[in-house]
Amino acid sequence: MPTVGVKRNLLFQALGKTFTDDEFQRLCFEFGLELDEVTTEKQMISKEQGEDSALLAGASEDVIYRIDIPANRYDLLCLEGITLGIRIFQEKIQPPQFKCIKPPPDQIQKMYVKPDTAKVRPHVVAAILRNLHFTQDSYNSFIDLQEKLHQNICRKRTLVSIGTHDLDTVEGPFYYDAKSPSDFKFVPLNQTKECDGNGVMELYSTHAQLKQYLPIIKDSPVYPLVLDSNGVILSLPPIINGDHSKITLKTKNVLIECTATDLTKARVVVDTIVCMFSQYCKEPFTAEAVEVVTADGDSIIYPDLAYRDEVISANTANAIIGIRESPESITKLLNKMCLKSELNAENIKVTIPPTRHDIIHPCDIYEDVAIAFGYNKIPRTLPKTNTIGEQQPVNKLSDLLRAPIAQAGFTEALTFSLCSRDDISTKLGLQSINEVPAVHISNPKTLEFQVCRTTLLPGILKTIAANKKMPLPLKIFEVSDVVIKDATAEVGARNERRICAVNCNKNAGFEVVHGLLDKIMMLLEVPWNPNKTPKGYYLQACEDPTYFPGRCATIICNGNDIGKIGVLHPNVLHKFELTNPCSSVEINIEPFV
Fold it and tell me: Is cis: bond before 362, omega within 30 of 0?
């Protein structure tokens, strides 16, 4: 959930009223927000940077409200959006009408997209704010909104990156192109020396904020560029803008461009910025259109600033929320949430403005009705159907087995559900990960969390390796889920509850894990069957690269394979950095539920 810091004096000035901290906290709650903290700029810097920070000298003592914003409410990520929303909620003003003004064909600014951009970031959208008036506070808010959007909907600039430029310092038409890192030079924002693409990577490789964005395009054969008609580089997205077109307090006309891998999110971002800051234009709540000409020759006008209508039923809203309000009352509640509504017989026509991209389905509208009505005011009722909660059978069985296993001298561990590919393949003696029915993570953050585990064994062996200094024997067990690929399952995979136990000592101690298996089967009332008939359980010799040759067996219970028991192979122990022999048992307990 994003947190927005706003100065209290500016907030109260925009709202036209002074509140106590408790009063404003109640107002936030009624509007669906949460006042997280009341602090000052100096306290924030002290907490983040320490008491010796040089930033403390220039920090102010202005009181700052840190407000938690729902992650899908992009229109509330700045002071302007918060105050506009609250004033409409308090019925002090009517929702504004946002307009996109299209100049005559010979005056409209154009952005031409070159084919090479498809290799790195294929999309661009743009808009212009004309006759804008910045103050220091509104300028800071303008920059801060961009950063909040970058961290939120833009997913740290991987999906969308925002560039804002002083339109009076450049000359259209504009071009969105992609060039080799060595084929261009420009002066990055707030720098004095020209750099090519490789120079930019080197310059910002140690930068506290920008270094995290370098990998997005670093390995690409071409880097995306936004240029004007004179070849002046406005920005190198998603890294940095050019110094030539930087905006200042004196800037009157702002060109906003968003390059993206996701066109829908780019449109949302441009709409959000335009809607929030067009109120500072000479003609409030208006933006000038930009014509984007794609590489295929298609012409598209941005920003969208589109309004759309949804029709909802007042009866459905009452039934879902659990209230009894008239259609007239629900219409009034929706108007307070920036959703202009009109009563049409028993239905309500709701107009969704371009600020409310979070409204996707009628249920989102019902949520706004509930917020405006007040969650605390919704009457409490008993459910029409009485139900009695109880544990899932597999969880109940797991809990019943944990205590006896612990009483047998084993210590319980809780290991990660994700592991590396090697942990469940080559480290266990298999040739490759292709032999394992594992569910892979599409975008793993680290090499340690690439796949969902298919066995509990690697996690326990890692636990033992991390506790080698503890006295022997080390007897560890775990009762948890593994994830197995299954084409018959609804999502292509299924969870399976297992017990795994490992005995690590100066000798393998196969009899220890065998005794534990017998103990578990006795508790489950499954008899030992030396005749190897379907009734009961027995061991059947098998070969598995994880285990020592001739020291491994499959556990057969009621005719089904439920797991393995054996002495671990020395190569497996070596790969997990263990020096003492180990024996293990792992069984699936779901057949006993």
Answer: no
- Phi and psi at residue 351, in whole multiples of 5°? -95, 120
- Residue 520: which H helix or E strand, with range? helix 510-523
Domains and CATH numbers, the chain: 3-89 (3.30.56.10), 99-302 (3.50.40.10), 308-376 (3.30.56.10), 393-592 (3.30.930.10)
How would residue 389 be classed by pLDDT, with cut points 50, 70 and 90? confident
* Helices marked H in 229-357: 263-277, 314-321, 327-336
The whole model's pTM is what?
Answer: 0.69
DSSP H or E stretch at residue 588: strand 582-588
Instruction: Report residue 360 as tokens.
Output: 């996707």
> Could you tell me the two tokens for 549?
């040759």
Contact 179, 255 (CB under 8 A): no
Each residue of 115-133: pLDDT tens digit? 999 999 999 999 999 999 9
DSSP string covering 174-224 = EEEEEE-TTS--B-BTT--S-B-HHHHHHHTTT-TTGGGGGGGTTT-SSEE
**pLDDT surpassing 90 at residue 382:** no
3-class DSSP state for residue 510?
helix
